[in-house]
Amino acid sequence: MVLFFVVHESPQFIIEKTGNREKARRALAAYHGVGVEDATVETEMKICEDSVTKSKEKAKAKEAKSPIQTDHDSVTVIFMPWKARDDSSKVIREAAWLGVMVKIAYVFTGARCLRAFSTFVLYNLGRWSYDGALYGSFAISLLRIPFTLIPVFLVDRLGRRPLIVTSTVISFLSLSLMIIGIDLGASWKIATLVGLSSLLLTTACGIGSVSRFYAAELVPRNLLISSVSILTMFEALTKIGVEFAFYPIANIVSLNFHNYVMGGSGV
After folding, report:
1. In contact, 108 and 114? CB cutoff 8 Å
2. What is the rounded average pLDDT of the residues 247-252?
3. Which of 13, 42, 116, 135 is found 20 to 30 A from 248 (Cα to Cα)?
């Protein structure tokens, strides 16, 4: 990490983003191990400048060919609706946020957390034996591999929306079944296993898979390129919050349930 503070930025990046030739020249000299006034530095500078010019020309050509044109940059379109009020901006903004919300909806199905903590769910919450929980978790993980291939063949036949809606409804029913199984204890441990399995397998072939490429289909990439990092960060923070909260909350729920059972039985 310390080395990143002393390493120079890419000369081409410096020229493209700031236009500071002197800073780019110093970076080139440092990378080549020569003086700033060396002739090779000037040659490399011309190569970098030509590359930046060509990249900008290609970007302009793509924008000219694009059927969708906006009067604002992508950050303004996505995050400043009070400024970007034209019809094109409204359509792009709604589509972009829809793509992000589909990904966040997948996070809130709990499948990502339960996939990581499947052994914990079956053993601690579902009251399976340790070996049973371990083998059950392993079997579910193996089954997820072929299930992820289903949307590859069916997404164009069935459509994105039916896959998303159907898998979300099944996820809700699976979670409900799993909650009932956990609440009723060891006598309903099969329900816990069935609920967990159906949740993980359904999301693998439904909203979980579709959400990975759904957002990219909604809006042309060149219109979102400068705001992708912000949207990705928003999605990542949501994932981190949900996943880090799962384990302590699950422990609290499990402990309270245990105390409730022990108190009710008079132990």
Report:
1. no
2. 72
3. 135
